[in-house]
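Justification of computing resources. Each target in the renewal requires a structure prediction run like the one illustrated here; the chain below, 386 residues long, is used simply to show the kind of job we budget for.
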Amino acid sequence: MLTTTAANNKLIYFRKEIYREYVRENLFSPYMGPSMNAIIRVITDLDKGGKNGGEQINIPLRARLNGQGVGVGQLRGNEEALDNQGTRMWIDWSRHAVTINNAEEQKSSVDLYAEIKPALTDWGQEKQRDEIVDGFYALPSQNPPAGLGSPNGQRVNGILMDAATAAQRNTWITDNADRILVGNGNTANLVAGNFAASMANVTGAMTVSGALVNRMKRSAKKANPRIRPFKLKENGTEWFVLFVGQEQFRDAQNDNDIKTANQNSRARENQGYLKNPIFVDGDLLYNGVIIREIPELSLRLPVFYQTAGSGGIQIAPAFLCGQGAMAWCWGKMPTPTFLKEDDYQFLRGAGIKMAYGVGKIAKLNAAGNFKEWGVYTAFLAAVADN
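Resulting structure tokens:
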């Protein structure tokens, strides 16, 4: 009779190196910074470790002068008042932790405690990136975020899209009518003062294209207050950044004008093809617009948009951004924390804490509502893959 190995005698080898689930980096990062020309302006004034502390911050805004002025006539009495307003931002806390006891550490074939720090780092970065996405979808508001200071906290300033009422959406579309595009044209598709009816006019054929990117850029340059380009080249060329989700980036890649421009106009010498999104993952370029895919714009698409288009199709906003589109306000930079109640050294735990607020910068208008400062929004089809 053939001898077989008993189950308890079979060799089992456990690897010490653990495989971690992929966490995508923050693809907004190249456009975040403390300078005035950043798309997402990072503000650290509330960081108490630095100087001030506090729960709120006001971001002052000043519109350009647009009066006629005078010639040789009397100037006294014909001066123009500076149009100045401010965007109020609130911060809140975000914390997380992992605890393990000696018994579980003893059983494990891997060093579980060593995995806590990278896991918390990934969690914090993912949280921040996702809340930037939620901030783009939110409607600006003068009031503190719903849930501010509650056990779950609320760092996204504004009214979350799925929590907004029909009246709030209608007010937003009225106040921002000069900086939005509905489908392939506002004349046919924008229903004045009615957000839902406007979205219902977007058909599956109204996708991101070279022609619509050009239209967005032209309209953004005429919006009032003016949207300051992300950057100006030495020859006066103005550049904007268009943030889109996966479906709209797919449509942009398939558009013949955009595809041809990236295929024929981008450098091939000195391995330039390694920066061409036709061959490798990367941004598309078209007529002074950087088209950047943010997958989380699809993954966190508000429920409202998933059936808002004509015939119930999925649509999505595409965000054409210039300087000062959004603010990221730090109250407490990410800081490691450690468990103190250790049950006679039987428990070990580590955590992270941070405090911040994020939201679109917007200017209060004469009606007491908000017009966004550095964002032009296009509502286009975003039909999912079959």
